[in-house]
Specification:
Strand content: 25-35%
Oligomer: single chain
Helix content: 25-40%
Order of helices and strands: HEEEEHHEE
Length: about 140
């Protein structure tokens, strides 16, 4: 059985064993879109999942949240299975909460070129603090 000073020393070394991948590990190549057959029709699409996970870039501890994407398609829609694989690539990536929503918006706009899109991430409470971050995009001329 370890003593308190030994446990403290072991604890301090835990973070050095955590492997945090950089945001370049986010797999945008898997994202796909399909042709939207009603491009003149303003249809609002809402996608959500409570399984979003990334890690704190400083501690390596997981951040969990509910991700909601709301968009009006232009000429294409996000293919959902590819979107799931894209989200899975965040699992071990060290990214701060405010950057995650902006990165997701940037990647999804590049994938499907929507007329409008809003990305919201409602994180689980961590350290007694709740965070919800959102960002919006409007296509030029819309």
């Amino acid at each position: 059985m370890a003593t308190i000073p030994e446990l403290k020393e072991q604890y301090e070394g835990l973070d050095s064993r955590v492997v945090i991948r950089q945001d370049s590990a986010i797999d945008t190549e898997c994202l796909m879109a399909f042709r939207y057959e009603f491009p003149g029709q303003e249809t609002q699409v809402v996608i959500d999942t409570d399984e979003f996970t990334a890690v704190c870039p400083w501690t390596g501890l997981p951040d969990y949240g509910t991700l909601t994407i709301t968009y009006v398609p232009g000429e294409s829609c996000i293919e959902l299975k590819s979107f799931k694989y894209y989200l899975l690539s965040y699992r071990d990536v060290g990214i701060v909460q405010e950057h995650a929503v902006n990165r997701i918006l940037q990647d999804l706009v590049a994938c499907c070129r929507p007329l409008r899109m809003k990305v919201s991430l409602d994180y689980k409470v961590r350290g007694g603090i709740h965070t919800e971050v959102s960002v919006e995009y409007t296509a030029p001329g819309d």
